[in-house]
Specification:
This protein is mainly alpha-helical. It has nine helices and no strands. About 4% of the residues have low confidence. The longest helix has 14 residues. The radius of gyration is 17 Å and the shape is globular.
Length: 131
């Protein structure tokens, strides 16, 4: 809804103005977004898909530190069905940044019995990293 409001405001439709949070999300303005990380009400009222999309954009931009933050927020509001995949992604990001212990702890939160076949293969590959 926020993305639609933002697009409508850009096309100069009357009565639709984006909120500052959506504008910051679109611009990936970390200074403007910083309060959102600490405001549970903003996190809860932003779709998990928006956090996922921002995570993807941050990864593509090479900003893995903030990608881990946005992915953690997506994990906090995701449904149990989507949780294992997001946890595996976070574990992989933690591993890539050299935090092996935390990456292993995050991976151990994944309930393998809730994974689909292809996800189980990914889990097994990630698990092989650790003795």
């Amino acid at each position: 809804a926020r993305r639609k409001a933002w697009k409508k405001s850009l096309s100069h439709e009357r009565g639709h103005k984006p909120d500052p949070f959506s504008v910051a999300l679109h611009r990936r303005d970390l200074n403007a977004m910083a309060p959102a990380f600490d405001a549970p009400e903003l996190v809860q009222h932003t779709s998990v898909e928006a956090w996922d999309q921002w995570t993807e954009e941050l990864i593509a931009a090479g900003d893995e530190t903030n990608a881990k933050r946005t992915l953690s927020l997506a994990i906090s509001i995701s449904t149990p069905a989507d949780l294992p995949v997001r946890l595996m992604r976070l574990s992989n990001l933690q591993h890539r940044s050299g935090n092996e212990h935390l990456a292993f702890e995050t991976l151990m939160k994944v309930n393998k019995s809730h994974l689909r076949f292809e996800e189980k293969q990914l889990y097994d590959d990630l698990r092989k990293r650790y003795p």
